[in-house]
Specification:
The complex is a heterodimer. Chain A is mainly alpha-helical. Chain A is built from three helices and four strands, in the order ββααβαβ. Chain A has one domain. Chain A has a three-stranded antiparallel sheet with strand order 2-1-4. The longest helix of chain A has 14 residues. Chain A is globular, with a radius of gyration of 14 Å. Chain A starts with 17 loop residues before the first strand and ends with a strand. By secondary structure, chain B is mainly beta. Helices cover 9% and strands 32% of the residues of chain B. Chain B has two helices and nine strands. In chain B, strands 1, 2, 3, 4, 5, 6, 7, 8 and 9 form a nine-stranded mixed sheet that branches. Chain B is elongated, with a radius of gyration of 23 Å. Classes of the chains: A mainly alpha, B mainly beta. At the A-B interface, helix 2, strand 3 and helix 3 of A face helix 1, helix 2 and strand 7 of B. Strand 3 of chain A pairs parallel with strand 7 of chain B.
């Protein structure tokens, strides 16, 4: 059987509404909503004065330390919504984050 | 969540991409053939001839690539469906890197991968060849979404047997030079 590509379960058009990052969080708290809302929730966990871009950078640093280098478009090249969606998608593709099954 | 302090931000990830490695030999890029396969998890084993679509390159000589622009989310979607894959052979001398297309994505750490290709380089006028044919294991996975098409970054090591080694292909014998023609001396009257 010759296969030229694999279709992933996830895409930018088909992102889950809730994810869980087991290696990053010590609690069982999930991130809900759109990718921007997920990163806003993560930024709130990091601290009161932490923005979304800081949360993205913190995630990228933690991923790099774990041997999962991720490089996103710069903030001047893509809006935060695109960067957030790309980051959430890559987290799911690499298995770093997991989708929370819906009831 | 018990998280560490957020600063400094983004420094280590940038270093992982921007730091060049001096151990890589610089040379002219040539490619004979490249095939790959993957077996793991739920995906079927794959073996695709990439002779037409694959390319190889060394670290440090990558084309800059185009960044994803604001108006190209569709391109980003299409690219993520089928990104090119940069494979680094971690246990080969010089840690060469090849850029292949149509590699299944996403691959996870520990996935087995069948690779078969031949690299021909000519650094400093000394041709060297690397015949890669065997089973490898993915040791690190990453993504570079700042270029188009996006790249899946894989680091692999040999899973079975010895890692491939560079060889020097035999040189062609030099063309024989024609001896100068011998003419009879012209008598001077």
């Amino acid at each position: 059987m010759t296969v030229t590509s694999f279709e992933s379960t996830y895409s930018l058009d088909n992102l889950p509404h809730a994810i869980w990052i087991p290696k990053f969080s010590t609690s069982s708290e999930c991130l809900h909503g759109s990718p921007m809302e997920m990163l806003q929730g993560l930024a709130r966990e990091l601290g009161p004065a932490v923005g979304i871009e800081d949360a993205i950078a913190h995630l990228l640093d933690d991923l790099g330390e774990r041997g999962i280098p991720i490089r996103l478009p710069k903030a001047t090249e893509a809006p935060s919504t695109v960067r957030a969606a790309l980051l959430i998608l890559v987290l799911l593709l690499t298995g770093y984050a997991r989708e929370v099954p819906q009831a | 969540m018990g998280l560490a302090k957020p600063a400094p931000l983004g420094e280590r990830s940038r270093e992982m991409f921007d730091t060049p490695r001096a151990a890589c030999p610089a040379g002219r890029r040539l490619r004979k053939s490249a095939t790959f396969g993957c077996e793991g998890r739920a995906e079927p084993r794959t073996k695709t001839d990439l002779t037409q679509g694959a390319s190889t390159q060394w670290r440090g000589s990558q084309p800059p690539g185009r960044a994803i622009s604001l108006g190209s989310p569709l391109m980003a979607r299409q690219g993520l469906m089928n990104p090119t894959t940069r494979i680094q052979l971690d246990d080969v001398n010089g840690q060469p890197m090849v850029l292949l297309g149509d590699v299944p994505t996403p691959l996870r750490i520990g996935d087995p991968l069948w690779l078969r290709f031949r690299l021909l380089v000519d650094p400093h006028g000394r041709p060297r060849a690397l015949d890669v044919n065997g089973r490898f294991r993915v040791t690190a996975v990453g993504f570079d979404l700042s270029v188009h098409p996006p790249r899946q970054l894989l680091t692999v090591e040999t899973a079975l047997g010895k890692p491939p080694t560079w060889t020097s292909p035999p040189r062609k014998p030099p063309r024989p030079r024609l001896t100068p023609a011998v003419h009879p001396r012209t008598p001077v009257m």
